[in-house]
Amino acid sequence: MKGLSRAASAQLRQVLLAGGLVASLGMASPAQTAEPDDTARPASKVQDARPITPDDIQALTGVHDPQIAPDGAQVLYVTQPRLATGAPDRSEIWIAARDRASPPVRLTQGTWKEGGPRWSPDGTAIAYLSNRKAPDDATGTATRQIWIVRPGREAPRPVTRFEDGVRSFAWAPDGQSLAVLARAPHEDTAHPIKEVDAPGTPVDLWIQDLASGAVRRIAVKGRTLSDVSWSPDGTRIAVRAAATSGLNDRFYHSELRVLDVASGTSLRTLRESAYSGASWSPDSRKVAFTAPAQGTIGIDAFVADVASGRVRKVGADLDGTIRQIVWSGEADTLLARAVVHTRQQIVRIDARTERASPFVPFEGRITDFSVAADGQIAFAASTPERPADIWIHGDATLTALTDLNPQIRGIALGSVEEVQWTSQRDGQTIYGVLVLPPDHVPGSPRKTVVLAHGGPHEAWATAWQGSWIDWAQLLASHGYAVLLPNPRGSAGQGNAYARGVISGWGTRDYQDLTDGVDMLVARGIADPARLGIGGWSYGGFLSAWAVTHDRRFRTAVIGAAPTDPLTLALATDTPDFVTAYFGLPPEAIARMDRSAPLRALDKVSVPVLVLHGEEDARVPLSQGLAFYRGLRLLGKPASMVTYPGEPHRIGGPDHQRDIQERVLAWFDAHL
User: Closest Cα partner for 380 from 104, 66, 103?
Assistant: First the structure.
């Protein structure tokens, strides 16, 4: 169905309240300079500030992929319309001076999908990916190719012509060639008949000489490649190699291999399964990377000696979860982006002692970062009051380089804080985020919504909470207290905590969530008679679990939820995800059934809203449809909305807006 207009949304809300029923977005141009005050601002208390709306959230500009120049003087970054959108229709590249002496400049035109910018080793040129058609291309639809620009010296020019486009690339250390990941020319396979799990045409490695345009292919037989990185001495390239291009193989079964550039031969496999590509040490002797922890639940960081193949775990002492690790400019120092309780920070890891220590404390969510030769760090991040910006850390100072969404300052935002409580089951400390309405008065209990996160190995952060999938600010701005719990199974407290829900979705983590609700009731924040719950993906699962196993919640919004682990394992595009928690059927069927909300539909006594993308391969539509149909067959109050053409993460702007409008209207009607 199409997204609701503002008028239709208002009408829907009125109908729900009265009856008790169970545009083309323009890219917001980044501000030319950051605010004079670069520290996080308190939540808006301006008297005439208004509540935030789905339209406000849809108009926010997102930012990612900050690339600091080798000398640290400038930063490239990519902006896109709308936050939390994995595949935007268009994006643009900007370049900003670290000292902010001049305003940021848009490097690309904003008409196409352009991103992945990378500085040449000497910092004079920038290569990037664009689906813009080359001036001399008279063929059909343009594919994503590499373009190079020398700012102030040379206009952008295309340098590759791969039939299916380029996946990713890396500069050679001497700046004379590129390592490119792309598919070889092949016959058109557009055909309605598909073989499930067929390997398909592999993605190969190509070395393209920039002066002559000559291209040399390096194929790894029986493997499709991703995440290319060149050793600083230029003799070797590290890649991830999987049997197919399917998500399950790429994510869970990608080997980390080192290839010889001259001969194209595979020198060594450093790890049978790696989550990230390799970051090389300055001396080209070692690489750092992340890989699945035991049983693929959790993440570990490693350093491997390339010559011997010896692999060591690093940062294991961190009370958190490492998401990204890179070598700094120092021989024995690594930098890692890590989730620590409810904060995403950058920590330092000593490669000799393998121990982690705080480095860039940050109140927010850091999504990615890069490091200059002089140690300056550029990262993309949000804070509770800043949806998305580029920050610079250097000389022990932290500075916001951009101010991408200044319009937020005129909106009444909820306050955001970390909270913690103790599990009544075993004394485990549980962390979460609390978002309170702008006008909250202590001692005045509020209608309250619990929002559960996806994963389960994800975590809520004390950061911006407003997008199509993050509803906390939308709800808080309209009078709700919102609890964002990180129960066991979440990231942020190490791998043992993440593994705490093995064989026990719902049975081992739901108590952590309700203990948080009890804490809010005891503090006089939550009104126990007006509680709701909602979430997407695994958050949808916990919401379905709540209404099938508990009577405290008056309603639930269940988004793209796995409701039956057995059929999920047999139908999802990532079967290894489910079986890592439960084991293989038929031996695991009893455990799976114990964690299936679908098996307890008769216990539901409150109205439920089910939302799902029709083309969801991760959690197939049948999971949500079965839950909804089962409720209706039993005469239970339920509604369901599906979104045509949408995968697990909803991308269409009208659909994203519709989800937010429906969520707010639904909770208003039932709380």
Answer: 66
Q: What is the pLDDT of residues 31-83, one digit of tens each?
A: 434 543 444 444 444 456 899 999 999 999 999 999 999 999 999 999 999 89
Could you give the 3-state DSSP secondary structure of residue 446? strand
Beta strands in 605-663 (DSSP E): 608-613, 638-643
User: What is the DSSP code (8-state) at residue 91?
Assistant: B
Crossing angle of the two packed helices 510-522 and 538-549, in degrees rounded to 10: 70
Both 413 and 395 in one domain: the answer is: no
* Same domain assignment for residues 395 and 449: no
Judge if 325 and 436 occupy the same domain.
Answer: no
Tell me the whole-structure pTM to 2 decimals: 0.91
Helix (H/G/I), strand (E/B), else coil: 641: strand
Residue 592 lies in a domain: yes
Q: Are residues 472 and 395 part of one domain?
A: no
Cα dihedral 576/581/584/588 (nearest 10): -160
Nearest of 317, 315, 316, 335 to residue 325 by alpha carbon: 335
538 and 417 share a domain? yes
Q: Which of 381, 404, 427 is the last residue of a domain?
A: 404
Which residues constitute the domain of residue 599? 408-670
Cβ neighbours of residue 566 under 8 Å, at least 6 residues apart? 585, 588, 589, 592, 593, 596
For tokens 């406000």, the residue is: 56
